[in-house]
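pasting for the record
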Amino acid sequence: MGGYSARYHAASLAAVFLALAIGILIGVGFGDDVVSGTTEDLEESLQSDVQDARQRADDLQGELDREREFGEAVYPALVGGDLTGNRVVLIALGGLPDGLANDVDAALDPAGATISEVAVVRVPPDVEALDGRLDGTRHARLRRPEEIEALGRAVGRQLVLGGGVIRRVRAQLLSRFSGRPARTDDVVVVREAPGELDGREAEAASRLEDGLLDGVASTPFPVVGAERTDTEESSVELFDSHDIPTVDDIDLVAGRLAMVSVLRGAEGNFGVKGTADELLPDLLRPGGP
């Protein structure tokens, strides 16, 4: 009986292990099929979602392109003659990218205005070079920040109205200049924010910009501060702090309309950024004045 029991027990164990092995094989095969099937379904679903998203993006881009084409087509009719014969001074603080200059021109040309003067101001200024050009004037010393700001006010006014100070420091202060001051109807100011500056350079840059913007704003001509929607560091708050109306979307038709309206007398901050009061001045709304 003992030998039988041992053989029976061994056979039972063998049967159990065999069943487990068969179960594992079946489970593995079935699990692979389940996982594989689920993965394929997920991939197909994701591919379909991506295709739908791409199609939607293409549709939206098509709508935007058509709206842009419409805006470009009607813009000349909306502003034609509003600024006929006006001569515009374009003042750029720090730099004037080609794209921004083209945007300003695209806003002004259909309205009948022309850019008669372009002045690109070096920021930060070369104080030592400027100091040597101002002997005999009240700006002869540029030792203190207030003196740099006072020079900026004189330069801001004289870039628009003309004068002896700007003639003296034109080569040292301006990286680019064309046209003639004193032949002005309107002023457009743009800005390219300076990069990292040390303490003295940052102070000189800030004082020069503040003074220059005060000087420009003190002239009797309409002034507007402009920038593109993709400008990395906005200058709207800086312009606004000097009571200069702003347009933050000059690369869009709405921004061009707003610029022309400001040069016709509208006041405020217009555009699409958080600093804007509204998209367009009341002057351009149906039924407006």
